């Protein structure tokens, strides 16, 4: 009998917390647009109630869990830094002795920045995400003035203080023509970034003039794949790097099958200002699963509303991914949960997986071309050891 201690794999769960809807900007695509003037915010007491429910549930599991609190808004940094310092102290108290690790991330428009907030970003939060579209002029203040110049100035302040950060760029019809310039900007800055296709708006006509189709998202992702393969530097561009890994796994390592199983583990919840929690795919549009300020996590997860959204995700995965050649290398998350916003539906109401399926095929085509060119076209220094072995098999 082995005397080796059993190593249990750590699981990760994100809680995206809507601190308040209040914001100094009026980004024209914001899905919180109708509430951006509302100053109502989550109280410290409500946060403590939520921490207790989360600690009781995840702390009792038989494996370690990393809990990532993603502070969101509105603009989360519009609130006083003391609010966050106080809640970080509460977390230490409430999670002490539990088999969980706590991460605090913030997603900010980076337009409200002083010395106290710089200190908070440097030593309070574990990770900083900055919203920056670079082109398109949609991230404006109440007078319609573009915020991009101010954000760029403040990025310099983060770098001067050695505060690491990543960026999110929302892809719309207005910045799509500049995708190479966007890639070059982050490449030169050596900053990781995520391209996030325009999300469902706050009202029907909100996105007129800058909507984007799934086919345009796919073409943009293809351009990013090609730029990534051609670049001399390693650029961490999401979700492109994940798709490259999936395509390599599809060709070379099909034994590593991964499937998204929401029933077994849900990896992301959105917590609204009133405590109602939602699955990622159902944020605001679908049913809330109950109130995490007043209800234990286990009750929420076993509740009827949660079981219904699990069933809906499983149905989506079954009807769309069942015959897909990539299922297993791709875990089906884009259809089950992640990107239902920018896929199309067929006559039976099943999702057509245009973006993820299309980008995996495109990467395979690029691998075929590299094979014909004797691999010289691939920047192999970018790859990890596993990816290099996968590559030598793939091409
Ligand atoms: S249909 Fe799309 S989400 Fe489903 S396995 Fe295939 S590529 Fe992945």
From TrEMBL:
<dbReference type="InterPro" id="IPR013785">
    <property type="entry name" value="Aldolase_TIM"/>
</dbReference>
<keyword id="KW-0408">Iron</keyword>
<keyword id="KW-0949">S-adenosyl-L-methionine</keyword>
<keyword id="KW-0479">Metal-binding</keyword>
<comment type="similarity">
    <text>Belongs to the radical SAM superfamily. Anaerobic sulfatase-maturating enzyme family.</text>
</comment>
<feature type="domain" description="Radical SAM core">
    <location>
        <begin position="18"/>
        <end position="185"/>
    </location>
</feature>
<dbReference type="GO" id="GO:0046872">
    <property type="term" value="F:metal ion binding"/>
</dbReference>
<dbReference type="InterPro" id="IPR007197">
    <property type="entry name" value="rSAM"/>
</dbReference>
<dbReference type="GO" id="GO:0016491">
    <property type="term" value="F:oxidoreductase activity"/>
</dbReference>
<dbReference type="Pfam" id="PF04055">
    <property type="entry name" value="Radical_SAM"/>
</dbReference>
<dbReference type="InterPro" id="IPR058240">
    <property type="entry name" value="rSAM_sf"/>
</dbReference>
<dbReference type="InterPro" id="IPR023867">
    <property type="entry name" value="Sulphatase_maturase_rSAM"/>
</dbReference>
<protein>
    <submittedName>
        <fullName>Radical SAM protein</fullName>
    </submittedName>
</protein>
<keyword id="KW-0411">Iron-sulfur</keyword>
<dbReference type="GO" id="GO:0051536">
    <property type="term" value="F:iron-sulfur cluster binding"/>
</dbReference>
């Amino acid at each position: 009998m082995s005397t080796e201690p059993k190593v249990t794999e750590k699981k990760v769960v994100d809680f995206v917390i809507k601190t308040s809807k209040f914001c100094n900007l009026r980004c024209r695509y914001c899905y919180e647009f109708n509430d951006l003037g509302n100053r109502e915010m989550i109280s410290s007491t409500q946060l403590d109630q939520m921490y207790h429910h989360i600690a009781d549930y995840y702390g009792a599991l038989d494996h370690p869990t990393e809990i990532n609190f993603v502070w969101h808004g509105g603009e989360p940094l519009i609130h006083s830094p003391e609010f966050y310092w106080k809640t970080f102290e509460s977390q230490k108290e409430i999670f002490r002795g539990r088999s969980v690790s706590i991460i605090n991330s913030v997603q900010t428009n980076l337009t409200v920045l002083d010395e106290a907030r710089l200190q908070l970003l440097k030593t309070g939060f574990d990770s900083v995400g900055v919203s920056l579209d670079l082109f398109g002029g949609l991230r404006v203040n109440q007078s319609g003035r573009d915020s991009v110049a101010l954000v760029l100035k403040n990025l310099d302040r983060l770098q001067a203080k050695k505060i690491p950060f990543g960026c999110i760029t929302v892809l719309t019809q207005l910045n799509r023509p500049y995708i190479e310039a966007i890639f070059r900007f982050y490449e030169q800055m050596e900053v990781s970034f995520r391209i996030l296709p325009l999300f469902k708006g706050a009202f029907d006509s909100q996105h007129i003039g800058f909507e984007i189709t799934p086919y345009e998202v796919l073409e943009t992702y293809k351009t990013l794949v090609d730029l990534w393969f051609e670049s001399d530097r390693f650029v961490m561009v999401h979700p492109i790097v994940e798709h490259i890994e999936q395509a390599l796994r599809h060709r070379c390592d099909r034994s590593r099958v991964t499937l998204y199983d929401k029933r077994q583990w849900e990896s992301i919840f959105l917590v609204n200002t009133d405590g109602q929690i939602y699955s990622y795919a159902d944020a605001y549009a679908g049913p809330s699963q109950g109130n995490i300020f007043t209800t234990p996590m286990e009750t929420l997860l076993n509740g009827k509303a949660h079981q219904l959204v699990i069933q809906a995700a499983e149905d989506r995965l079954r009807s769309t991914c069942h015959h897909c050649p990539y299922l297993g290398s791709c875990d089906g998350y884009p259809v089950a949960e992640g990107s239902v916003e920018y896929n199309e539906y067929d006559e039976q109401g099943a999702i057509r997986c245009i973006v993820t399926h299309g980008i995996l095929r495109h990467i395979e085509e690029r691998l075929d071309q590299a094979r014909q060119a004797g691999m010289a076209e691939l920047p192999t220094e970018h790859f990890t050891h596993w990816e290099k072995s996968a590559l030598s098999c793939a091409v």
